[in-house]
Amino acid sequence: MENIDQAVDVRKGEALDTHKVEAFLRDAIPDLDGTLTVRQFPSGASNLTYLITLGDREMVLRRPPFGTKPKSGHDMKREYTILKALGPVYPYCPRPLAYTEDPGVMGCPFYIMERIPGIVLRKDLPASLGLDPGDVTRLCRNLVRVLHELHSIDYKGIGLGGFGKPVGYVERQVTGWIRRYRAAHTPDVPDAETVIAWLQDKMPPDTDLPTLIHNDYKFDNVVLDPENSLNIIGVLDWEMATLGDPLMDLGGTLAYWVESDDPEDMQLIRSVPTNAEGMLKRRDLVAFYEELSGRPMTHYDFYYCFGLFKLAGICQQIYYRYYHGQTQDERFKVFGGVTGILEKAAMRVIEQSKL
Predict the structure, then answer these.
(1) Does 104 share its domain with 135?
(2) C-alpha span between 323 and 104 (Å, rounded)
(3) How many domains, the chain?
(4) What does the pLDDT look like over 100-158, one tens digit per residue?
(5) pTM for the complete prediction?
(6) Domain hosting residue 166, numbered range
């Protein structure tokens, strides 16, 4: 089917040692047969994702990027752990199959999971899906519902009570991303100090109802059913999942939510089809989450602004690697410009906020 997410040839500098990978797979996963092929999913700018095929068995391999990486980022064991714990209670998780920290296989920890074949929405909504504006609105609401389902899980009951530290979560996030942004700063991007000062001043108190949060929840991290594209059948990329304030999770989603009437610079960096006719506006999306969760949205501007700043920090960390020659991926050449656009968007939130 033409809308199924496809893997491509492996990028230069990101090839795997197929002999070592195959030996590991055959030892770790029973009943594998056939010839090994390795391809790469081209999207994503953090952990690397490969399609592994052995005979008629399709699996996905996740590993950290090559080159320098943030000390606490790209934790393969965390991803693997949360997928194992969530499997019985959250049907959208890929099934984890194997994990290793043996440096002799790949030089880094990595894990294998099942592939969920389906539709992953990228920049524009495919016309071939045949969705009318009403369908798009229903899909939007389903996206919010699946996020709220995650936030409703009894995380202690599935053994994830120690997965994070909810107390002080917002303050740690703000402080941590300020530190990361400054550490990754290059002379060709804004210093964002006005945004930083506003976030420090407007931080809300800890929530008394912390939840498990995904931390990178957006359209291109969910998989749609090929038979009914309004249904979400998978949620991917759990590398930043933790325990904390679910409204920080929602704010991260909003950072990617470029509306059809947003400024031209935001249209240039739009990566998912949130401008399509029928998509909820950000405030309507927030109102729907409030309806589902019962949580007050008095600090909506803070969560959205922080989502933009955090996304700017992520882009800047990636751009820093490119700027200093630590990656050869030409996609990252423009990320410094993206950082600047996100900083401007955060400034617009501040200028219009009544907090």
Answers:
(1) no
(2) 30
(3) 2
(4) 999 999 989 999 999 999 999 999 999 999 999 999 999 999 999 999 999 999 999 99
(5) 0.91
(6) 127-352
